[in-house]
Please model this.
Amino acid sequence: MTPDPDTNLFGAPNQPADPHAAPPDARHFVRVAVERGIDAPTTSRRAKPGTAAHAPANDSTLTYAADEHIPVGRRVEVPLGRGSTPTGGIVVESGGRELLEGLDPARVKRILRAVSNTHDPAGSSVDLPPTLIDLARWISTYYVCPIGMTLAAMIPSAVKRATGGRTVELLRLAEPADPEAWLKRLEDNATPPTPALRRTLTALAAIEPARFPLPARQLADLLSEKTLRSVNRLIQAGILERASAFSVRATGGAPIDSDDAFNDDPIAPGDPSLLPLAPSSPPPPLTPAQSEIVHGVWSTIDAFNVHLLRGITGSGKTEVYLHLIERLLNRDAHATALVLVPEISLTPQMGGRFRARLGHHGVAILHSGLSASQRHEQWRRAALAPAEGGARVVVGARSAVFAPLRNVGLIIVDEEHASDYKQDQLPRYHGRDVAIKRAQLESCPILLGSATPSLESWLNAQPGGTGDPPVHAHAPLHSTSTSPSSSSSHASPPCLRGGAFVPSSHSSAKYRLWQLTERIALTGSPTLPTVTVVDIAEERRAMARHRRSVVKSASPLDSAVHRSSHAQEIGEMIGPTLERAIRSTITAGGQAVLLLNRRGYAGYISCADQNCGFVLTCDDCDATMVHHRRVRFDLPRDSTTTNRLIRCHHCLAQRLLPPKCPDCGKGLIWLGLGTQRVEEEVLSKFADLFDAPAAPADDPSPTRPPTDDHDADDVSDEEADQHRHVLPPLPPWLARADGDTMTSARDWFTVLGRFGRGEIRILLGTQMIAKGLDYPNVRLVGVINADTALSLPDFRAAERTFQLISQVAGRAGRGEHPGRVIVQTMEPNSPTIVLAAKHDYVGFAERELAVRARSHLPPITRMARIVVRDEDLDKAMARARTIADALRAVASSADAHRAEARSAKSSRPGASIPNREPALTVTGPLPCPIARIARQFRIAIELTAARRGVIQSALMSLRAKGLVKSDAHTAVDVDPLALL
Model:
């Protein structure tokens, strides 16, 4: 009987061979980090030379076979799991059978596809440089994140999807330029060389070979041909040949001056407000202080060093950046530079200045405001070599630290103190610290710049500073600096002597410190603006006393009018001092910037009856809802609702404001302040200063939707439907810049353009207007309420408040007119506000560091935070206790080892007794200050230690046991910036 080939000896059907299995003779193998949350611990490996330098113990990668050698950094598709689901990943190691480490080759699957980096529109990813693979390994270890998720964050989704990608047809020379040989070719192809065709050949030979390949139409233009007839003849004769290339067509998004490879002028014309320096303008001369800094940083250009530049606002930090990059690019034709800015608001002007000065080298812009195709185009330009049309300079926000530049010779982090550099989602990295680590991997210097450096950086720049940044447990760096600001009454750091740059070779500082303490007086005021601190509570009391005296002396009818307006005046956000300053500024032709770091109209809504006690809170969060006006929304409308919107700023839930208290049926009141409320007050107070007065904010005109409960009853449903989606128009002299109005980068760039041209006279906004804006006609800055962050339950509240006031104050007085700053506060004697008004950063840093030292808080110590989340409070607390108990066990073990070492050392004659404080302190589990967000209860555990290594060892121990994973239920935040 002939056996059935489809069945086995027992008559059961044979299992089909795995189509993804590697062939028995496979010679090429790769380790792939798949873009999934795989975080299983594996054994430590060391890569082969030329690939990633080292794979730590927690590097969860999978081994696959390949048909050919695949370089490290190439994106691939691999079969994952039993179902062999196609999954993206990055090759982190490439080699032969040694990568199997004893694994049976028959169990290894084969990769599905290696994404092309040439002409394939379906996969245009460019290989990540090996440096970025090493950087991903470090991020995965330090921030407790699967390496696959880290690598996935490095490549924008637009690049993975090849958004805007297409294959274009180009023309290139079939052989080197030789007009005589070309004429012979034409004769051989029976094409008579007419005089016109001879002129075409002469023009073709004059084109630089580096300009090829070119599109046919552009080539015809260079040849002064109106049609493609001559070009087609040259193709037929074999003088020109067709070639295809992958190209990205960028559309939409933020307005960038795109420099594609076919642009004759790499600096395309743009909005003058976005290009403060014209391309033809010669660079301004450096001051002696700037020259010293450029010389000092340049002396370390070929090695890893960290430099901290503290320069007051308007002191010329950007010019230092530009000179250093120019010198680097001119010295080395292959070198590149990376410039980070904290947020999109700094990109227009910074990007414009870099394009104006360095556009001929190629400048790519990367930030979240770009459209998908723009991001793909700019990222690809950063990845390509300069000879292929690539950019040599990348300017971008936080994620630009992963720009695929090669041969990086200098990294600059502007406004290094900004919290925007901290990523609040997986991987929770800090852009500044990652940039420092990348500089170490690239063996190049990094320059951190700020007018108000973070206390972490400032401490690392002090001799004997105890700061322990994540990447500098290496040879100590020497400290060099200038004299501190003359406004500071505090002693200078030991490395500052007599206003000169004094190298301190004996110093233990990790950073080299430089300072610019004077404003550049070429076009602006040489001094910092005058800051006036106003006690807004006292001003309101004075207004109340004045109102009472008027009421007493007035007639009964006038007394009633004064009493009705008194309640409104008490709630005014702009006090008399600031109001007078705004009026005088606008009357003199200047511009004013008003800062309030809080969105919305009112942040606290409650029942008017105190006996009721109702407070309007979010159903899914332990937070109050915020009242918003003058916004677009799509919500149903009926007779029981108004057209006012309430939002939760944590889970983003929104609904209509009920007209009455849902508990007792009485009216509602709203308290607190926000940018919308200040906008309303500006409209009512200052419209008379301009030609076209604005209607009062609550005036139900036909061109605006109703904004009051009584107005809603007087408007028909048809009128309400007609105006529901219409934003109430603002007069051209006023703009509000916050998260409600700046919904895209284009919105923000448009506002900046109008403000730069002087169309907007009063710019009101949140912290996005506090940094980086350089407009010469800003003569007044008003801080509506300097206390918004001081009362937060966060030990960094004072530092953030000082930085915000100092940064926004620096927007004033940058032109020929001196600047003025009015700071309204309920705590005029707060040391933070007093020192900010004096521009005394050194004094503030010394005071705040002393407070942190007494409290054992960062940067004196290191911190990590684990937040457990679950819709079930008991489950969240139980899991948090398990993690906390495991951490305390690790801490006890470490303390026992230290006790043994202490005992051994103390027995030696003359030995000093080591520190008896615990190596690791575990706090919690405790509910977070905001205990519930989006229906998830949040339980926090905090770890503090004197050194980062202690925390890393504890987290690695828990990670190896599977107790700590960065997933939907557990968030691990190393070096947290926010504790809410």
User: Anything to note?
Assistant: The two ends are 77 Å apart (CA to CA). The first strand starts at residue 28 and ends at 34. The first helix runs from residue 130 to 142. The CA atoms of residues 609 and 666 lie 7 Å apart.
